[in-house]
Amino acid sequence: MSFADANPAVPLFEATGLSKTFGVVEVLKDINLTVRAGEVHAIIGENGAGKSTLMKIIAGNLAPTRGEMRIDGETVTFSGPVDAEHRGIVLVHQEILLAPDLTVAQNIYLGRELHKGVFIDDRRMNEGAAKAVRGLGGDIDPDTIVSRLSIAQRQLVQIARVLLVPHRIVIFDEPTASLTPHETDALLKVIRQIRAKGVGVLYISHRLPEVKEIADRVTVLRDGKLVASHETSEIQPADMARLMVGRDVAKLYPDRHAAQARETVLEVEHLSVPGYAQDASFQLKKGEILGFAGLVGAGRTELMEGMVGLRPSRGAVRHLGKPVNFRDVHASLKAGIVYLSEDRKGKGLLLTKDLIVNLTLASLGKFAGALQIDRKRESAALDKAIRDFDIRTGRKDILAGQLSGGNQQKLLLAKMMLLDPSIVIIDEPTRGIDIGNKEQIYKFIANLAEEGRSIIVVSSEMPELIGICDRILVMRSGRIVGEVTGDHMNENEIVVLATGVTKGEAA
Amino acid sequence: MANVATETAKAPKTSKDWDMAAVAPFIALALLLVLGYFANPNFMTIPNLLNVVTRSSFIAVIALGATYVITAGGLDLSVGAMLAFVASLMILFLNSGTIADPSMALVAGMALAIAIGAVCGLANGLITTIGRIEPFIATLGTMGIYRGLTTWLSQGGAITVRDRDILALYRPVYSGSFVGVPIPIIVIFVTAAIAAFVLYRTRYGRHVTAVGSNEDVARYSGISINRVRTVTYVIQGLCVAVAVLLYVPRLGSTSATTGSFWELQAITAVVVGGTALRGGVGRIWGTICGAFILEIVGNIMLLSNFVSEYLIGAIQGAIIIIAMLVQRSLMRK
Question: Are A370 and A326 in contact (CB under 8 A)?
């Protein structure tokens, strides 16, 4: 923007031999990377591959242990993110970092308020904010309080805030992680606009089709090393996945035996969760894996929470033919219905407590004698859980928060399976989990169904639902709008139901 | 697996690392004892130390209850006023002459104090859980109520045990001793042992910690948060009642200002002992240690001539701030 165009022969940004060591562990090894003006360069890799570390170094949040960075051929070192910003490198964080009680304009100008003398110049800030948001193709009143905005709108505000700084390189850290397909399309459009202005974009994601769509070049990291760098036109998403994982991933989903007609274990009729879900009716059969698809905010999580007594609900639920009305989770757990929250860190596990406390929390009754808890039995249960669910941990006395996302999910699964439930509801079973652990979790889910338990999987990842479910119900705006089975279980049919429009219209 | 190695190496911190925070109050106590030893030769004598610990018994026992409330993520500001209220009602009952036999009257009076303490705690619990009022505000309200009722009962003056027989019978509960150990000290350790057992070894204790650590996780695990929290306030009420049982025989009298600022001392003892004020980590023996520290600081100030004993409140205020700073620096590492 305010920077003059540089010599096109010299790349806008170049890193050579970047390495980063934490203690004795080298998390990045000899990374070479270039970003040209007016290109989108995608960085892909599994969780823990080093993407975030690399981006933090480029954005000035971390200093490299070795290696060099150059802007316009001139060697630079950053004392911090503000320093990098002065050089024109800005980072759009994955999480939304906005003050929810302030307005859009107040957030965009936070810490750099415009003023007239001692007075804040709200008029000018509102105008500037409106212009910035419009420039990104958005239409938000700058006077709106941020807490009233949707996630996608908040992200737009966050991007507008970042882009207010004169910039030459914009780093997007998994920006689409919490967006619906529709919102993702809008974001990609914004990125194309930024690119068209001659800005270099670094784009981190593990949604490969999206990378294929937006990026000009793609660089793959694995275990801290750069394993490949390609023009995107030369490489297909399947190849990207293979490079990321280092092996073939065709067999991500386990084989499933077609479910036979078996007895119904759960009947839900006209269940409503006020404000979130209306008039939901469905049945769940023994040994079945039933999927719930839909966009973020379609009411799937709330419907499940209403069903197990975490939220107030109206309607009829019959469990094994008997009418039930769970007032709290204790009641549904007792009936053998467990719900694994999508918010593993916030609602699933006590991150600052050790593994044993977490494992036995929901089923302490099984470990309590007349007076006290039997710690030996607890310890044995942890050993068994680590074996059964392949929880990878060097030590058994670490805190749950120190496990990786995949191992946390396995621990949560182990915790709930101690209750020996007949119905297992899993919300976003593989969110934030790398491919290796995903494969295992799918296998566990399939095994649970083989054992005769009934499973409900709520997920925003359509391939995963299609891969493991016998049947998929699709929700839109709080209602179940359709069911797909057999040959109809494909992304296209689900998207049509979930959005209410055909693919052509949506784009 | 390479990435397993990475994770463990990157995060060498384990649950064991919290131990430093648990040990810190005991180190502080030891340092204080050393300081006291040099400040005045009379400090390190058995009679003085027994006296100091005996005097700390009210705060220590109240703070045990506060440890439960705070561990579960709550707060109770009403304990000082509650102590005065329960003690006043107990003395009024003893004075009423409802039961003629002094020992029977005393037993009934003690039982009544326990029951009233439990009810007062229950009221606090229900207002915060069912009534969904922030514990700070709820117990600020009940603090005013209990204190006001006490002032009204005493008509602004004192309420004194009138029956000499009862008083003679009751005195030893505070001033007596068993195999050389003053009764209040025995009470401290017995109640602390019970509190530690319940908090660390039982289902309920685990639930208290879980609720304070993360309410949502507890709820999603099928734990009734309201019940667990309410019971912590009842436990707090019971602890206040036990403190009343020790307090009444000491002077045989209460007034409108009995127990003033004890809530702050109890909270200070809890926090100095290493219990996290945001909940989720409770340290029973640390609390006892904290109560001793508060009393010993006062004692040293009294025995030495460096600092005026009128500054005791200021010193205790400084202690709580220092304790918080130490706690945080230990957790960051």
Answer: no
* Res A95: pLDDT: 79
A55 and A136 co-located in one domain? yes
Distance from CA of B2 to the nearest CA of A (A): 8
- Asked if the structure places residue A368 within a domain, the reply is no
* Parent domain of A480: 264-350+419-506
If pLDDT is split at 50, 70 and 90, which confidence band does A296 have?
confident
3-state secondary structure chain B: CHHHHHHHHHCCCCHHHHHHHHHHHHHHHHHHHHHHHHHCCCCCCHHHHHHHHHHCHHHHHHHHHHHHHHHCCCCCCCHHHHHHHHHHHHHHHHHHCCCCCHHHHHHHHHHHHHHHHHHHHHHHHHHHHCCCCCHHHHHHHHHHHHHHHHHHHHCCCEEECCCHHHHHHHCHHHHCEECCEEHHHHHHHHHHHHHHHHHHHCHHHHHHHHHHHCHHHHHHCCCCHHHHHHHHHHHHHHHHHHHHHHHHHHHCEEECCCCCCHHHHHHHHHHHCCCCCCCCCCCHHHHHHHHHHHHHHHHHHHHCCCCCHHHHHHHHHHHHHHHHHHHHHHHHC
Residues A203 and A302 in one domain: no
Q: Is A217 helix (H, G, I), strand (E, B) or coil?
A: strand
The rounded percent of chain A whose pLDDT value lies above 90 is 60
Q: Which residue from B43, B38, B78 is spatially nearest to B236, judged by alpha carbons?
A: B78
Q: What is the predicted pLDDT for the residue at A261?
A: 66
Q: What is the CATH number of the domain that holds A341?
A: 3.40.50.300
Chain B residues within 8 A of A22 when measuring between CB atoms: 9-10
Q: Are residues A234 and A276 in the same domain?
A: no
Q: Decide if domain B42-332 falls under CATH 1.10.3470.
A: yes
Cβ <8 Å between B9 and A22: yes
Contacts of B214 in chain A (CB under 8 A): 346-347, 350-351
Nearest CB to B217: which of A333, A334, A348? Answer: A348
% of chain A exceeding 70 in pLDDT: 94
Q: Once rounded to an integer, what is the mean pLDDT over residues A108-135?
A: 90
Task: Choose, out of A402, A418, A427, the residue to mutate when testing the contact with B (most B CBs < 10 Å).
Answer: A402
Range of lowest pLDDT (A91-100, A191-200, A271-280, B237-246): A91-100
Task: Give the confidence band of A258 by pLDDT, cuts at 50, 70, 90.
Answer: low
Q: Inter-chain contact A352–B280, Cβ cutoff 8 Å?
A: yes
pLDDT of residue A45 exceeding 90, the answer is no
Residue A81 lies in a domain: yes
Structure tokens at B46: 């058995």
Quick check: A364 and B207 CB within 8 A? yes
Q: pLDDT for A340-354, tens place per residue? A: 999 999 999 999 999
Domain final residue pick, A245, A280, A307: A245
Residue A313 lies in a domain: yes
Residues A182 and A321 placed together within one structural domain of the fold: no
Position with higher pLDDT, B320 vs A206: B320
Residues A330, A436, single domain; the answer is yes
Q: Which of A15-19, A83-87, A272-276, B67-71 has the largest mean confidence?
A: B67-71
Q: Which residue of A has its CA nearest to B6?
A: A25
Whether residue A177 sits in one domain with residue A85: yes
Inter-chain residue contact A372 with B3, CB threshold 8 Å:
no
- pLDDT bucket at B3, cuts 50 / 70 / 90: very low
One domain, residues A63 and A155: yes
Q: Which residue in A has a C-alpha nearest to residue B201's C-alpha?
A: A372
Query: What are the tens digits of pLDDT across the range B156-211?
Result: 899 999 999 999 999 999 999 999 999 999 999 999 999 999 999 999 999 999 99
| Total domains present in chain A | 2
- Looking at the fold, whether A178 and A58 belong to one and the same domain comes out as yes
Tell whether A98 is covered by a domain.
yes
